[in-house]
């Protein structure tokens, strides 16, 4: 009664009929989701460009982290329901979560170990260690509070507030999507900024720091509302009870494995010696749905690669959308935007049209279609990858070398280089050689040229300069200058400098961002001119300053450019079809899957199915990291096709399983156990009744006997 009065007292603080406490919970969820998805949006690029990991290892660690985020909810639910309660669990794990985000932000500060101030961390091991500790704490925090926050919000309503509770969950999930959408737009913009103490680099500390700040804000807001919350005491976790029931059934079946012992209808019936039949029937219903979950991880294996493989794919594409430039990690925003559009379209247009066509589009059939659409999305990704690969340079293998030649004289030159013979005026093509080759110019004597293995080189007359052997990172453009002028030239672009380039020499490469770049060229006498050039994404150029160069207003017209690597020519917009197919699959698969699971689950075991659903996401990410490390496919498009083929195979298996599935009504089954008393219970009650009758009869005889003895003693005394 005291708890009821306390609950009523706290529930009196309302706004528009809703408990004031839920507004703290909704804002808390928005900030937490912003923090999680914002950090995750830039994570794979942080691995690739800051920690300098290759694509496969970056993908492996990314999906390991996501898998942990979906494994820890089971731990969080058990802690909340069996030990601390939801409120304390959310607070304590949010602290762990915030600390993890702060550690991630610190790990991305390159200046903390950049002793020589060259822009490269001197102790990368420290940065890796901090990153892994931070990610582990984040996984524990975000996963641990995931099953608690929504349920805690539901606890704030009274029994007569079903309508308000339903509206709360709609607002709650809207806040999740809003936080996800805004963070995947904002954090890539923050990452693209330049920051640093000694050198200016991509600002990963800011991209991780803002989500960390939002997580701290989330925690503070949640604690501020503490006095208004209805905090229910932990009553025990149903998952623990289910696991114990299943464990006892297995052990009991093993103990009674003799052929002489009669078999039972279902293996869970071996738990009847300890657990009531209602619980056993509920566990049977749950296991029936969990069995259908077995093929589902393959869908998530493809779905979660939007944040890894697809983001890495976007780094080799053109992100110029006219009025704005899209960063590779910002393409992930296509998914939440399409979700907001497609959910109402599918619910209010597609499904009603299918229904009017008299098609029995059951939930399991919808999920099958969703899996097939996800497979088509990866086929689309493979087609895009083929176009990207066709636009990329043919880099040399580890046992090959490439060389191109630049003519700096005023006449054509006849070149014989190995098996290649050509007249050189202005050659921009690379030729591939073995260990070494003979070079002959005009009628001169051949000269033996040896180049390092696996390199690209530019030969200017008989000078050789090493070229880039990979696409420039983060969409930048690798630019260098060859000074054919008769004096030292100093060249700068923005805050970056090529230094003093002596005559007949080549500068080092400098990364120049997409857009218009202005190169300031000066000589020792102070004469200068500006050379402007528009750049795309991921190109490499060598600019040649000829002997006839003059430092005048239009000096750029004298500068000759040689394209070492072409700019990204495949537009990021070509990724939209694969995002559309994947999002369509998600709407049909994920929403329907949760709806189906809840409709087939007992009323008190929906949390068990929620845990099972999250577990399929974790297993799906584990599949990705296994394939990323184990697959030896040389081309990325082939890996996309492999995943698509695996999902189609799994889709067929799931369709067969769905065909033989029989839909049930859990409420009706539970009602049968509630209204109809089982025979063994009747027998037990009858035995108890008989025992009570015998005890009552014996008690009467004892009392009668005692009464007779008392009368006899009294008569003897009187006598």
From TrEMBL:
InterPro entries, per database record: MFS_trans_sf, POT_fam, PTR2_symporter_CS
Subcellular location field: Apical cell membrane; Cell membrane; Membrane
Gene3D superfamilies: MFS general substrate transporter like domains
Transmembrane segments: 12-28, 63-84, 90-112, 124-145, 171-191, 203-224, 285-303, 337-355, 367-388, 608-628, 640-661
Topology in the lipid bilayer: Multi-pass membrane protein
A molecular function GO annotation: symporter activity
Record's catalysed reaction(s): L-methionyl-L-phenylalanyl-L-methionine(out) + H(+)(out) = L-methionyl-L-phenylalanyl-L-methionine(in) + H(+)(in); N-acetyl-D-muramoyl-L-alanyl-D-isoglutamine(out) + 2 H(+)(out) = N-acetyl-D-muramoyl-L-alanyl-D-isoglutamine(in) + 2 H(+)(in); L-leucyl-L-proline(out) + H(+)(out) = L-leucyl-L-proline(in) + H(+)(in); L-phenylalanyl-L-phenylalanine(out) + H(+)(out) = L-phenylalanyl-L-phenylalanine(in) + H(+)(in)
Gene Ontology biological process terms from the UniProt entry: oligopeptide transport; protein transport
GO cellular component terms given for this protein: apical plasma membrane
Pfam families in alphabetical order: PTR2
Compositionally biased intervals (Basic and acidic residues): 685-698
The keyword Amino-acid biosynthesis belongs to this UniProt entry's keyword annotation: no
Region feature Disordered, mapped onto this chain: 685-719
Keywords tagged on the record: Cell membrane, Glycoprotein, Membrane, Peptide transport, Protein transport, Symport, Transmembrane, Transmembrane helix, Transport
Composition bias, Acidic residues: 709-719
Role summary: Electrogenic proton-coupled amino-acid transporter that transports oligopeptides of 2 to 4 amino acids with a preference for dipeptides. Transports neutral and monovalently charged peptides with a proton to peptide stoichiometry of 1:1 or 2:1. Primarily responsible for the absorption of dietary di- and tripeptides from the small intestinal lumen. Mediates transepithelial transport of muramyl and N-formylated bacterial dipeptides contributing to recognition of pathogenic bacteria by the mucosal immune system.
Family: Belongs to the major facilitator superfamily. Proton-dependent oligopeptide transporter (POT/PTR) (TC 2.A.17) family.
UniProt name for this protein: Solute carrier family 15 member 1
Source organism per UniProt: Poecilia latipinna
């Amino acid at each position: 009664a005291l708890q009821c009065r306390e609950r009523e007292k706290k529930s009196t603080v309302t706004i528009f009929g809703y408990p004031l406490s839920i507004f703290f919970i909704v804002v808390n969820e928005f900030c937490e989701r912003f923090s999680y998805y914002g950090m995750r949006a830039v994570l794979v690029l942080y691995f690739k460009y800051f920690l300098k990991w290759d694509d496969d290892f970056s993908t492996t660690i990314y999906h390991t982290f996501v898998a942990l985020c979906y494994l820890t909810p089971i731990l969080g639910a058990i802690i909340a329901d069996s030990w601390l309660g939801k409120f304390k669990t959310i607070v304590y794990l949010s602290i762990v979560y915030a600390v993890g985000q702060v550690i991630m932000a610190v790990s991305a500060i390159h200046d903390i170990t950049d002793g020589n101030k060259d822009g490269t961390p001197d102790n990368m091991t420290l940065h890796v260690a901090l990153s892994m500790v931070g990610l582990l704490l984040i996984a524990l925090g975000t996963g641990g509070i995931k099953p608690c926050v929504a349920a805690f919000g539901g606890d704030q309503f009274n029994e007569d507030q079903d309508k308000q509770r339903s509206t709360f969950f709609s607002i709650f999930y809207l806040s999740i999507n809003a936080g996800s959408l805004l963070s995947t737009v904002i954090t890539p913009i923050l990452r693209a900024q330049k920051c640093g103490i000694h050198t200016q680099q991509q600002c990963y500390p800011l991209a991780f720091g803002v989500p960390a700040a939002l997580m701290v804000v989330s925690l503070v807001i949640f604690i501020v509302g503490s006095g208004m919350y209805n905090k229910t005491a932990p009553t025990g976790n149903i998952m623990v009870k289910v696991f114990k029931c299943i464990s006892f059934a297995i052990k009991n079946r093993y103990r009674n494995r003799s052929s002489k012992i009669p078999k039972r209808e279902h293996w869970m019936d071996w738990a009847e010696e300890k657990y009531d039949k209602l619980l056993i029937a509920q566990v049977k219903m749950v296991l029936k749905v969990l069995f259908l979950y077995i093929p589902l991880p393959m869908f998530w294996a493809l779905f979660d690669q939007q944040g890894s493989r697809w983001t890495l794919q976007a780094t080799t594409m053109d992100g110029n959308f006219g009025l704005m430039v899209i960063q590779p990690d910002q393409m992930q925003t296509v998914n939440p935007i399409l979700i907001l559009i497609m959910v109402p379209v599918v619910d209010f247009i597609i499904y009603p049209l299918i229904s009017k066509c008299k098609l029995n589009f059951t939930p399991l059939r919808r999920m099958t279609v969703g899996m097939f659409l996800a497979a088509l999305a990866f086929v689309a990704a493979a087609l895009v990858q083929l176009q990207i690969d066709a636009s990329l340079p043919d880099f040399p293998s580890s046992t090959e070398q490439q060389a191109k030649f630049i003519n700096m004289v005023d006449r054509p030159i006849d070149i014989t280089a190995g098996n290649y013979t050509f007249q050189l005026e202005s050659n921009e093509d690379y030729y591939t050689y073995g260990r070494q080759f003979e070079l002959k110019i005009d009628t001169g004597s051949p000269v033996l040229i040896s180049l390092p293995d696996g390199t690209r080189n530019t030969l200017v007359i008989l000078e050789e300069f090493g070229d880039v052997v990979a696409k420039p990172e983060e969409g930048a453009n690798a630019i260098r200058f060859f000074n054919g002028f008769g004096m030292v030239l100093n060249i700068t672009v923005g805050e970056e400098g090529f230094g003093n380039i002596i005559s007949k020499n080549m500068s080092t490469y400098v990364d120049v961002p997409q857009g218009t770049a202005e190169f300031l060229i000066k000589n020792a006498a102070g004469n200068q001119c500006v050379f402007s050039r528009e750049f795309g994404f991921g190109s490499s150029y060598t600019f040649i300053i000829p002997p006839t160069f003059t430092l005048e207003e239009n000096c750029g017209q004298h500068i000759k450019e040689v394209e070492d690597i072409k700019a990204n020519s495949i537009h990021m917009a070509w990724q939209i079809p694969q995002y559309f197919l994947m999002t369509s699959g998600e709407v049909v698969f994920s929403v329907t899957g949760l709806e189906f699971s809840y409709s087939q689950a007992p009323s008190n075991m929906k949390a068990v199915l929620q845990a099972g659903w999250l577990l399929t996401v974790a297993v799906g990410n584990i599949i990705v990291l296994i394939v990323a490390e184990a697959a030896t496919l040389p081309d990325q498009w082939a890996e996309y096709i492999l995943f698509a083929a695996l999902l189609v195979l799994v889709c067929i298996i799931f369709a067969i399983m769905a065909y033989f599935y029989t839909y049930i009504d859990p409420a009706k089954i539970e009602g049968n156990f509630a209204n109809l008393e089982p025979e063994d219970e009747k027998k037990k009650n009858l035995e108890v009744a008989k025992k009570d009758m015998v005890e009552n009869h014996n008690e009467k005889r004892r009392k009668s006997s005692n009464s007779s003895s008392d009368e006899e003693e009294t008569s003897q005394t009187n006598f």
